[in-house]
# Entry
Amino acid sequence: MRMHHVLTVGATTAAVAALSLTTAVPAQAAEYSSALKIKGIQYDAPGRDSNKCSGGNTKNEYLTIKNYSKTAKVNLKGYVVKDAAGNKFTFKSSHTLEPGDYVHLRGGRGTDSDGKNVVYRQNCNFMWNNDKDTIYFYKPSGARADVHSYTKKANDRDGNGYITYHG
Ligand SMILES: [Ca+2]
Ligand SMILES: [Ca+2]
Ligand SMILES: [Ca+2]
# Structure
């Protein structure tokens, strides 16, 4: 009886450990039904970081969103990007991504351009932390399109500040 009790406790502990492991798996394990996904992120802008609008390097921090559909055009208008701290960016203007097309969502201020594949957050503060963060990407409906968590240590082996997700 005593032995049985010990075994039961052991099994329960293992089950709890397995459960917490499952919970701790980063969000990128999940796969959502979406044509638009995160191709990669330059989360650490090259060089010494400065959030000054003039002369700073926030523009060199960017998220790349790509249309992985072979047939569907997708308008970015209404899509939302959030980080772990709840900082939020909404694509407010129409910007159509053709199949295979991509956009760089850059920090800082600038002129959005379909031809140059760029949208600016119009905010000179950095959004993506250099040590770790989570990238949440939502459809206009509020449904998740893609989510990825990173740490510099685990996900950026070459240390260049860039991480590839859906290449
Ligand atoms: Ca930097
Ligand atoms: Ca952040
Ligand atoms: Ca890298």
Summary: The CA atoms of residues 40 and 121 lie 17 Å apart. Confidence is low (pLDDT under 50) at residues 5-25. The chain has two helices and eleven strands.
